[in-house]
Amino acid sequence: MKNTKLSRERAEELLAILEKRFLNNMNRHADLKWDDIQKKLEEYPNKLWSLNEMEASEGEPDVIGYDEKTKEFIFCDCAAESPKARRSVCYDHEALESRKANKPKDSAVSLAEKMGIKLLDENEYRELQKMGSFDTKTSSWLLTPPEIRKLGGAIFGDCRFNQVFVYHNGAESYYAGRGFRGILKV
């Protein structure tokens, strides 16, 4: 199993990055306090590791809410465009395996699993778009309902003309401007 614990130095550095982003974007989490979030992150080093993976792949994770039912803080990739290091991937492993030629390096679902996060679903994506302007030049794969995936498709979203659009594509397709955004509850 892959080591999912950060060095003390990297953990401190990451916490400082996350705190700065948190304080600079209070519109995403007006009623939350950083000290509460940091305390929770320190209790779950594997979640801090996942946030580091999000940060390392240029996702710019930030807190976007709090789940009252589960008592968890919700982190999401808040980079203006789909994270650069997660683009040019097809939807899932099955789609990757179905390609005969010109296979992408990986799939969105597989990369998310390796990072310990999940893809945003359509509702989460639409909620994120209420907090800013995201994917105005790129697009992001979204967690696809099984009934669509069973037929070979997958969905993705973007924002054009100040409007959020959700489209479909063959799950095996991949583009330089399409990646995925992750969500993580802590």
Describe this protein's structure.
It is built from seven helices and eight strands, in the order αααββααβαβαββββ. It has helices at 8-24, 34-43, 45-56, 93-98, 108-115, 122-129, 146-149; strands at 61-67, 72-77, 118-119, 139-142, 153-160, 163-170, 178-180, 182-185. The chain has a four-stranded antiparallel beta sheet with strand order 1-2-8-3. It has a four-stranded mixed beta sheet with strand order 6-5-4-7, covered by helices on one side. The chain starts with 7 loop residues before the first helix and ends with a strand.
Order of helices and strands: HHHEEHHEHEHEEEE
Q: How are the strands of the biggest sheet laid out side by side?
A: 1-2-8-3
N-to-C span: 21 Å
The chain-level mean pLDDT equals 96
| Category from helices, strands and their pairing | alpha+beta
Number of DSSP-assigned strands: 8
Helical residue percent? 25-40%
Strand percentage lies at 15-25%
How do the strands and helices of this protein lay out in sequence?
Blueprint: H1 8-24, H2 34-43, H3 45-56, E1 61-67, E2 72-77, H4 93-98, H5 108-115, E3 118-119, H6 122-129, E4 139-142, H7 146-149, E5 153-160, E6 163-170, E7 178-180, E8 182-185
Parallel strand pairs: 4-7
Antiparallel strand pairs: 1-2, 2-8, 3-8, 4-5, 5-6
In short:
With 186 residues, the chain is an alpha+beta fold.
Task: Provide keyphrases for this structure.
7 helices; alpha+beta; 4-stranded antiparallel β-sheet; 4-stranded mixed β-sheet; 186 residues; globular
